[in-house]
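[Q] Does anyone have a clean structure-token version of this?
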Amino acid sequence: MRGAGSVRGGFGLVGPRRERHVVQAADLDALALPVGDDGVVIGVDAGGRPAVLGVNRPVPYEVTLIGGLWTAQVLALRTAATGARVAVETGRAQVWSGLARAAGGGQQCVTLHDVGRVPPQGASAGSPVLVVRDCGMRPPRGRVVAGPWQSVLTLLPYLSPTAPRLLRNSALVGVQRVSPDEAEQVGALMRLPSAAVDSLPTLGDGVTLWCTRQDRKFVMTQGTETETGLLGPARRID
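[A] Here you go.
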């Protein structure tokens, strides 16, 4: 006769026997957490709740941000803090070099590359990647594109002739303060209600409208003490 702590071949110790915990499918929504383990907290919404952007995905994910360098850099820092690698494609490496040195606590988790020179990143579930494209008003088509576990964030300082294509191909679009004319164009492209369009020219620094063609949410991003010390205060204009 085997004791309570006896070993079964290949299965280890016999554990305690308990009743199974069963949740009805209709109750699953109640188990949702405000912050997922693969998400980046990008700020708070109008109700003060954390706003989370899941950049580490098993499917291709493209994001376009019409906004300032400060917000893109905060997103890059916070993504690196989740354990992902960040590859920055930029023609102004000097504005990213301090961030690249500071991120990762000595680990090279943020790398800088000239425009059109981003090598294959070898993204995987265990080593996800965010490619940040800071290539000006007319970013060329990238050599490295979105794929499984590799998301791409394209930063546009203002609405440009390439914006319609980028917005059509993006799963998510962020819009910071723009001119009234640009707000009208973004509104038409993203099917925004008139109230959202009217608010875009008046947004404060650090405020972004994150939207798809079906949903939208205003988010305030505030830098932590460390982020502010490295990047300065939130600003729309570089």
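[Q] Thanks! Anything notable?
[A] Residues 1-37 have pLDDT under 50 and may be disordered.
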